Amino acid sequence: MDAKICIICGLILFFVGFFALLYRKNIIFMMLGIEMMLNAANLVFAAGTQIYHNADGQIMIFFIMAIAACEAAVGLAMLIWLSRNRKIMDTDHLTLLRG
Amino acid sequence: MIMTVTLTILCLLLILCFVTTSIIPTPVGACASLIGGFLLLSFIYGFLGAHFAAVIQIIVYAGAIMVVFVFVVMLLNVPTQDLPKVKISLADILSILLSIPVLILVSIKILNWQAPMIDSQNVEMKDIARKMFIDYLWPFELISFLLLTALVAAITVAHKNKGSRYMLKEGSDHGR
Lengths: 99, 176
Known about the structure:
heterodimer; A: mainly alpha; 3 helices; elongated; B: 176 residues; 70% helix; 0% strand
């Protein structure tokens, strides 16, 4: 029962993160939305660990956290580059793909 | 029973924290509310018996990744962001109204699902370590290479190079 509630909670959290990713224009908020979606996936993996009594779910949580760290590092570096060289932080103004 | 009620309250608070993050105008407020959500999430992991995940949720996620976010918000001096104005059409309202019964139906389906009865011991730290360094050794090593690559990429991208031809020219229109 506990694990099922967590699966439903993870479902709702994933869509809250997806909403933040689509709704906000600032890159920082969009990255926070991606973090929320990754955490929703983590919650479902933890629920699966409790249902199946298997360690695989917690190892997946570890891997997803490592990938989230990589994403945060590269994304924030790109954000710093953009705000320093172009003085923009909104995706509305990012109309050029090159450079 | 009391465990289930507590867990439901924690889940509702978690959803509240994440919704606040997605609609609050200030960047620091969004980061703080997300950190609060991560702490609640680590409580939930503890309730589910995933103690390893609960610990690294606090140490790695709330302690390292979110600190980087807050640091970048402070470094770039991000101003308060006005929420984007969206015209709500009839199709939007209809899709929202239709999505609620879908959510309810999926929830009922999940709650009625008979979980398989597995009589084995709860997952301990020992099992995780054994599995990670025997079955998942190659993914583990690949993740370490991925982290190294991300480190090099972040330093290369954020490095200040003055002669770049893509830098903002005087009087240009903010890169449009």
